[in-house]
C-alpha cells in the first residue's frame, strides 16, 4: 500500500520516475485500473453531494441523449466504464500508430501508465470539484462556474497531457517529436470517448 501511495504522489513530484516504477510492477494493470477507479469514486461522491444539495448545473453537451434532469443521476454510475474505455482507446490508438514507427512498447504497458495517470486528474480536478460542490450546496455563491471552467480544470487537463507524453515516451522509446504526436493521437481518442458520455 505504501508503494501505491508513493507512486501516486510521484505523479506530481517526480512523474517520469513514478511512471517508470509502475512499469516495473508485476501487477501494473492494477495500477492502470487505479486511475479510473479513483476518478469514479471522487466524481461519484462529488456528483452525489451536488445532487443531494440541489446545486447541479445544466449539462453542457447534447452528445448522449439523457434528459438534463436525469443526466447526473446516471453519470455517477458510468464514469468508471467510460474512464476504462477512454484509456483502452488511447492505449490502442497510440500502440497501433507507434507500430508504424517501430515503437517497442506493449498495449498493456500503455494501458497501465495512461490509466494510472488518471489519478492525477482525480486529485487535480475531481477533489476540487467535490469541494466546490459541497461549498455551493452550503450556499457559497458563484461556485458553479468554477466547476465548469476553473483553473483546476485547466491544470488537470494539462497535467494529464504531460503525463500522457511521458507515458508514451517510457513505453515506446521513440524520439520526442514522435512521442508527442502519438500522445496527441491518444488524447484525441480518449477525448472522443469522453465527449460522448461525459458532460
Describe this structure in words.
With 199 residues, the protein is mainly alpha-helical. It has one domain (2-56, 66-197). It is built from 8 helices and no strands. Helix 1 (2-13) packs antiparallel against helix 2 and helix 4 packs antiparallel against helix 8 (176-197). The model has no long low-confidence stretch (mean pLDDT 89). Keywords: Membrane, Transmembrane, Transmembrane helix. It is a multi-pass membrane protein.
Please describe the topology of this protein.
Blueprint: H1 2-13, H2 15-23, H3 28-53, H4 68-100, H5 107-137, H6 144-149, H7 151-172, H8 176-197
Helix pairs in contact: 1-2, 2-7, 3-4, 3-5, 4-5, 4-8, 5-7, 7-8
Poorly predicted ranges: none
Mean pLDDT: 89
Assembly state here?
A: single chain
Q: What's the number of structural domains?
A: 1
Portion in helices: over 70%
Strand content: under 5%
Number of helices: 8
Major β-sheet profile: none
- Order of SSEs: HHHHHHHH
Number of DSSP E strands: 0
- Specify Rg, calculated over alpha carbons: 17 Å
Distance linking N and C termini: 33 Å
Shape: globular
Classification by helices and strands: mainly alpha
Protein name: YIP1 family protein
Subcellular location: Membrane
Domain Yip1: 10-198
Membrane topology: Multi-pass membrane protein
